[in-house]
Amino acid sequence: MSNFIESVLDSGMGRSLMKSVLPKTIGLKRYTPAQETYFEGRVLIGASDNAALIRDIFRNLKDARAQVFFPAAARNAAAIVAAAKEFDVKATGLEVSADMSDKFDALVFDASGFKDGNDLNQLYYFFNPVMRKLNGNGRVIVLGRPHMSAENGEQAAAMRALEGFSRSVAKEVGKKSATAQAIYVETGAEANLDSAFRFVISAKSAYVDGQVITVRKAEAISYPDWHKPLAGKVALVTGASRGIGESIARTLARDGAKVVGLDIPPAEADLQRVMSEIDGVVLVGDISSSEAPQLISDKLKELGGGDIIIHNAGITRDKTLANMPEHWWNMTIDINLSAEERINHALFEQGTLNNGGRIVCVSSMNGIAGQTGQTNYAASKAGVIGYVQYMADELLEKGITINAVAPGFIETAMTDAIPVITREIGRRLNSLSQGGQPVDVAETIAFFSNPASSGVTGNIVRVCGQSLIGA
């Protein structure tokens, strides 16, 4: 009977029925090489009293094809005009109201000057009249300072409020396939803002929604070519033969990197196919073996050292804890977590990772929210998050960044095998009401890998369309 129901729902009539029951979606606009720059469209800029990041916003917008506007009646309009003039960006003042005819592709507010909770009303005054003026696939970006580095408790509260605000805005604009993010910039890290700002306002962040990115003080590196930011870099991608790993390898190669793709012997044929198509290097091995760290280190040294390490390979062995065999538990922890630690240790110890190295680990939404029958998998992926957050301080001193992505519902062969009703509902359990693509995970990894992301470390970005389950 279940097979019959699935066949009916997979038919044309069934799909029409599903569309009438489940929410309709607006397709996401993703990056294509035909796009001349990282952003093109109309952007409305607002800034708090004593805003400190407005110059850095305009420093980035000068490289975009943006039509820039600001509320003419704002108390800080003079600061916006001065920043625009400094970077030779035309900014036009508007009489902003709920009945205005203007629409925008991005709404950007610099809240870095907030001192206490009383300042939060500035968010209301800027966003309230224009929330209905955001175009489909639009962007909302709020910038502030990390709350734990605030001057006092009142300022910390105001800054932490930006996270709750931006996540809630994301849920309100998601029906337009628009997204909202918060970027926290440490004092002194203003020059490190560029990669985070350009990523979240661009089409490369199409399925990243309701997220918080923290930018730390580090060596400032000028933003490279938008289309080839990884030119000259050597990148290792584990589990590169298919699915998300294949997309990561293809995206890094598209961005200019020389990719070393690693996978297990049974996947060698697929790995050979992918690497031949992107002019990559094949490396066959099992990351959980005792030989793997040295195998990887030796191959990277042959290519002049590694610049980017992507820990993507992983397994699932699902059963409820009461029914789980011991070897399933041990295997999952070893491959998903311990192998990454051993490989990193060897690369650090042998000096295989070049200056400015980037490490990106693939975690999971289930490592954040948990999942029935996945105590082993969820523990391993939560462990990845703990490792990334702990190692960030230590590695930043060496000029190395480490971050993680946590995918949600990503359309792969695995999700295609899910029963149709469960699949259709699962796709819509997020603010964008649709599943993501493997390239969405890959684009976020490419952002972390960017040379200009020198101040982006210790971040866990969920690539899930703002899943309704999890933090």
UniProtKB/TrEMBL annotation:
<dbReference type="Pfam" id="PF13561">
    <property type="entry name" value="adh_short_C2"/>
</dbReference>
<dbReference type="InterPro" id="IPR036291">
    <property type="entry name" value="NAD(P)-bd_dom_sf"/>
</dbReference>
<protein>
    <submittedName>
        <fullName>3-oxoacyl-ACP reductase</fullName>
    </submittedName>
</protein>
<feature type="domain" description="Ketoreductase">
    <location>
        <begin position="233"/>
        <end position="408"/>
    </location>
</feature>
<dbReference type="InterPro" id="IPR057326">
    <property type="entry name" value="KR_dom"/>
</dbReference>
<comment type="similarity">
    <text>Belongs to the short-chain dehydrogenases/reductases (SDR) family.</text>
</comment>
<dbReference type="InterPro" id="IPR002347">
    <property type="entry name" value="SDR_fam"/>
</dbReference>
